[in-house]
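Sample entry (504 residues):
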Amino acid sequence: MPETDVLIAGAGPTGLVLALSLARQGIRLRIVDKAPGPGTASRAMVVQARTLELYRQFGIAEEVVQAGIPVEAAHLREAGREVMRIPLREMGTGLSPYPFALSLPQDDHERLLEALLRDQGVAVEWGTELLDFREEAGGIRATLRRDGTEATCAAAFLAGCDGAHSRVRETLGLGFPGGTYAQLFYVTDARVEGPFREDLFVNLQARGLALMLPVRSRGVNRLIGIVPEALSGRHDLRFEDIRPEVEALLGVRVAELNWFSTYHVHHRVAERFRAGRAFIAGDAGHIHSPAGGQGMNTGIGDAVNLAWKLAAVLRGRAAPAILDSYEPERIAFARTLVATTDRAFRGMVGGGLGGQVMRSWLVPHLLPLLAGFTAGRHLFFRTLSQTRVAYHDSPLGEGRAGDVAAGDRQPWVADCDNHAPLDGRGWRLQVHGAVSPALAGAAGRLGLPVDAYAWSRDAEAAGLAEDAAYLLRPDGHVGLADPAQDPARLEAYARRHGLAFAED
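Predicted structure, serialized as tokens:
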């Protein structure tokens, strides 16, 4: 028998969320990281609404929101002047319990997740490096090194959440095609003069991308942007060298500097996310531009997707083949996201005609036009918040009812809060309308919880079909959508995937 069920390499947000999700379901695990301890500075800042919805399933969303700062509006600037204010809360109201983006520094985020993981009885093994591993019959045998001493660990599965330079990905020989942007980025935490600004500010000037967002409740802002091309080759670059341009672009005066660093941005997606009993997630599988604040959230989405499937297989609640759905679901989204953020990034900073059109016409003219329509506001929010992520080509998807297809995130219905029963651990059957006795009987035989809600205008507006049956996966995505409430179809779906719903 393996000494642990899952060995996780990497204790960033992706690895910590994977560990937390598995621990909540009683899965034995070890999580190791070669760093001596938690990070003290970070570049990732934004927690999107979909991530908060997933955290709500864990029972930790409110704690995370309290630790951060809700960003309810974005200000777009061109050449140092504001051209548009986007009210994020207005765009997301009615679509999610969290109609905003949350600003929470990655190091604070990681400390919070690590504390929650300790509450589950699991401690991160800092200063422990994964050196090598191989797959054997029934599991993975890994070599770990701590304090100069090597030891082996036998696990049923291995998850590489170990970043862009992933040892797991490299050991598996998975290609990581893509490239590196020529621009040099800067990042700094600073206190600016005047009242503390809790909104997001984005300057779109050609080759002068600059962003400012709130960092912590004590009144510090994060400034991110591109180093002026004339200074990008300097190895001794200081903030004072770029201060005049940064302050002009963002319309601020920096009063106090906490720290400053420079870095390059890559855009890559691994050729595969799985090889046998080993998986990769987060930056080990995909990295991209900071456009839209999507990177960390995508890694957390990977972790949640993988966690419920590993737990189901390890607990004997699903056929092992369910693990085959992880790669196609998450790699398809990663590829689309990298392509989209790449186009957006190049448009924001490009000096050609396309970039000029985006900054001078599309942003100041088309966005306000779209924002004037409900459909346009909803599209903007869903795209940015990742509530639009769907797995339409998943081997786990079947059917459609109303506007909701298998693979979609189950829409949130505000008047009944139909996301409240989701706990990230078990499947649920949801009906807005009347539940037929035949369907109730089948659910009872399967041990499947049923959430029944009165039909409402909110449910109709969300795209649901009256009296339709929606079988929800543990992550809140639709597995089966059946407008006819056919009990035989539900039971056949459960048999096909080897699903066992009843709790022990």
